[in-house]
Amino acid sequence: MPSDATAPTPVPERPFAEPWQAQAFAVAVHLSQRGLFTWTEWTETFGATLAMARAAGQPDTDGSAYWRHWVTALEVMLAARDVADKDTLEALKAAWADAYRATPHGEPVRLKGG
């Protein structure tokens, strides 16, 4: 990870409420470690995402939207760096939803073509 700032580590007393939240956290840390963006760039983008949500009347007063905003900020970073545009991300979300709905309980979810 670039040395401008260090990525936080989860606090043991506050574990993630859902596995996808931990995965979203790990994706941001990994992409920063790989040099896609610095942690300072990440915190600025995430902060701007939170500010836009507040301005739109969607404050995260109880913490329930925090990780959704985290994912939105990841999408913004991917689009800003031409890694994936909004249409591609939406198509992947739809493909994932189709795949998990079609997967029998207990079986691994597999995307078509992947």
TrEMBL record:
Source taxon at top rank: Bacteria
InterPro entries with a match to the protein in the record: CN_hydtase_beta-like_N (IPR049054), CN_hydtase_beta_C (IPR042262), Elect_transpt_acc-like_dom_sf (IPR008990), Nitrile_Hydratase_acc_put (IPR023808)
Domain named Nitrile hydratase beta subunit-like N-terminal: residues: 12-99
Record-linked Pfam families: NHase_beta_N
NCBIfam families: nitrile_acc
Full protein name: Nitrile hydratase accessory protein
